[in-house]
């Protein structure tokens, strides 16, 4: 065996492989950018603190003690942060039921109700009770707020101040917060990947060309793949929800029909995204890298594992360009809060817009490229 000759042939093969990679335009950006993007999103998206959380303070007291208390809450900055933890709105003459509706609507993460005799009782060293309502559907933010308030009042007026913390949505755990978003994430991942793999794979092995040579139209191909994904993803969602509620004891307070509506609209958009990415990918390798560039960062920028209030502002703006953010919010509003159509209307409108855009883009690129 001529070692020099073999090395020369190996060199030629290596050059050939690099040329093949560089010809795949869809592969180049994710190939080099993906690791950096994942470092950024892992680092900033897996937070555990919150900032600028919207809190409503209902202060019926006119004394100085309540004013000092509100000022202390509003000016608090975490030890390892540089931004205030709370963004406070003030009001008075609001009952607990109305305050709960504010939380139901997603306007505030918490409402602190200060009674009108708070300053008087503190001055007399008498016990006084404040009511703290939290959006416990967001268990992370709720837990941080409750812990802060308990620590704050532990040293106030000889610990004479106590908190009443009603469970608006019942006893919830982190799994209740996580499960609705994981279901939406699973549908998103599954739809994009399986749709893209089907088209990119059929394109690579020539199956799609043979299908196009038959009387079957491009529209029929897209419709068939879409219906397949709708049935498959709805079945997966039902199994996931049943498994989570029966095995893990996760809360399911809302309507199954509303969950299905959200997932159907969401799946349409994901199908379109999968078709669009596969249509511009030269082969399976290009599609895999391109899809990862879109799907994996969305895990950490859309509030799947932690609330959006725990991520940097720039990442929050990115989150609002991703349909998964609004699917997560709608799913939690239905499954955890048990709210109806009116409370998810804005999320549905945005999801419909995304579905029309991505599905239209996917159909256009499929018709042009395939």
Describe the structure.
It contains 14 helices and 5 strands. By secondary structure, the chain is of the alpha/beta class. It folds into 2 domains: 53-164, abc type-2 transporter like domain (abc type-2 transporter like fold), CATH 3.40.1710; 173-369, no CATH class. Strands 2-1-3-4-5 form a 5-stranded mixed beta sheet, with helices on both faces. It is elongated.
Put the structure in a nutshell.
This protein is an alpha/beta fold. The chain contains 14 helices and 5 strands. The chain folds into 2 domains: 112 residues, abc type-2 transporter like domain (abc type-2 transporter like fold), CATH 3.40.1710; 197 residues, no CATH class.
Please outline the helices and strands:
Layout: H1 3-23, H2 25-45, E1 53-59, H3 64-74, E2 86-91, H4 96-104, E3 110-114, H5 118-123, E4 128-134, H6 139-154, E5 161-164, H7 174-205, H8 207-212, H9 218-247, H10 256-279, H11 284-301, H12 313-319, H13 323-335, H14 341-369
Parallel strand pairs: 1-2, 1-3, 4-5
Antiparallel strand pairs: 3-4
Helix pairs in contact: 2-11, 7-9, 7-10, 7-11, 7-13, 9-10, 10-13, 10-14, 13-14
Q: What's the number of structural domains?
A: 2
Give the number of DSSP strands: 5
Structural class, judged by helices and strands? alpha/beta
Q: Sketch the major β-sheet.
A: 5 strands, mixed
Query: Cα-atom Rg, whole angstroms?
Result: 26 Å
Number of contiguous helices: 14
Regions with pLDDT < 50 over 5+ consecutive residues? none
How far apart the termini lie comes to: 46 Å
Please bin the fraction of helical residues.
Answer: 55-70%
Major sheet: arrangement of strands: 2-1-3-4-5
- If you average the pLDDT, what whole number results? 78
The H-and-E topology, N to C, reads as HHEHEHEHEHEHHHHHHHH
């Amino acid at each position: 065996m001529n070692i020099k000759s073999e090395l020369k042939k190996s060199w030629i093969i290596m050059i050939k492989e690099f040329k093949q990679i560089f010809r795949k335009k869809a592969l180049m950006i994710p190939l080099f950018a993906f690791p950096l993007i994942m470092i950024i999103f892992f680092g900033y998206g897996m937070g555990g603190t919150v900032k600028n959380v919207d809190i409503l303070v209902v202060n019926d007291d006119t004394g100085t003690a309540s004013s000092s208390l509100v000022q202390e809450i509003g000016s608090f900055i975490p030890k390892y942060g540089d931004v205030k933890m709370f963004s406070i709105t003030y009001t008075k003459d609001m009952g607990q039921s109305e305050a709960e509706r504010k939380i139901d609507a997603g306007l505030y993460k918490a409402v602190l109700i200060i009674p009108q005799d708070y300053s008087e009782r503190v001055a007399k060293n008498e016990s006084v009770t404040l009511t703290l309502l939290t959006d416990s559907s967001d268990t992370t933010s709720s837990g941080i707020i409750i812990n802060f308030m308990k620590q704050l009042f532990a040293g106030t007026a000889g610990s004479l101040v106590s908190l009443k913390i009603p469970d608006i949505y019942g006893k919830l755990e982190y799994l209740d917060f996580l499960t609705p978003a994981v279901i939406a994430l699973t549908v998103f991942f599954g739809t994009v990947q399986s749709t893209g793999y089907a088209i990119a794979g059929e394109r690579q092995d020539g199956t799609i060309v043979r299908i196009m040579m038959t009387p079957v139209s491009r529209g029929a191909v897209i419709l068939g793949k879409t219906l397949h994904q709708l049935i498959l993803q709805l079945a997966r969602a039902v199994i996931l929800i049943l498994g989570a509620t029966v095995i893990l004891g996760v809360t399911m307070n809302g309507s199954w029909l509303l969950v299905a509506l959200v997932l159907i609209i969401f799946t349409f958009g994901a199908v379109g995204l999968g078709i669009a990415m596969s249509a511009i990918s030269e082969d399976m390798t290009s599609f895999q890298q391109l899809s990862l560039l879109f799907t994996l960062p969305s895990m950490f920028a859309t509030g799947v594992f932690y609330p959006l209030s725990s991520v940097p502002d720039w990442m929050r703006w990115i989150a609002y360009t991703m349909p998964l953010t609004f699917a997560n919010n709608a799913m939690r509003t239905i499954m955890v809060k048990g709210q109806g159509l009116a409370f998810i209307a804005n999320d549905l409108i945005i999801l419909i817009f995304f579905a029309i855009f991505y599905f239209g883009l996917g159909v256009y690129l499929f018709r042009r490229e395939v």
